[in-house]
Amino acid sequence: MSNVPDNLKYKQTHEWVESLNDGSVRIGITDHAQDLLGDMVYIELPEVGRKVKAGEECGVVESVKAASDLYSPISGEITAVNEALATQPETPNKDPYGEGWILCIKPDDPAELNGLMNAQAYRDLIASESH
């Protein structure tokens, strides 16, 4: 079973969201997603300052198996990207919830976070997909 930390929120498209103390959120792909994709070879990062809407494609994650779009779980402005992924795209394979984070967003409406799945709902989603 994939690692699904209880302190994060999740999107059906397999992104995780961590609320930070400054009101922004950190986003990455879940352990389940990196496991399905396999070894990462390239991550296309969005531009800092770009405004995104919830559900909008904002990057691409490429692995030896496939390329997959990265979707913004919430609407807001991208305030940071993990520049280290440009030279170390395999980081989400090793540490998807830590050093493998992909971007940070300052939410337009923090209440949007309430529409994301909690850890148990995400575990249920993964279980239903594997059958």
Number of helices: 3
For the largest beta sheet, what order do the strands appear in spatially? 1-2-3-9-8-5
Kindly state the percentage of residues in helix. Answer: 10-25%
Mean pLDDT: 95
Number of domains: 1
Q: Mind telling me the C-alpha Rg?
A: 14 Å
CATH homologous group name: RNA polymerase II/Efflux pump adaptor protein, barrel-sandwich hybrid domain
**Any idea of the CATH topology?**
OB fold (Dihydrolipoamide Acetyltransferase, E2P)
Query: β content, as a range?
Result: 25-35%
Strand tally is 9
> What's the CATH class, please?
Mainly Beta
Low-confidence stretches: none
Query: Order of SSEs, N→C?
Result: EEEHEEEEEHEH
Distance between the termini: 13 Å
CATH architecture: Beta Barrel
The major β-sheet equals: 6 strands, antiparallel
Helix and strand composition category: alpha+beta
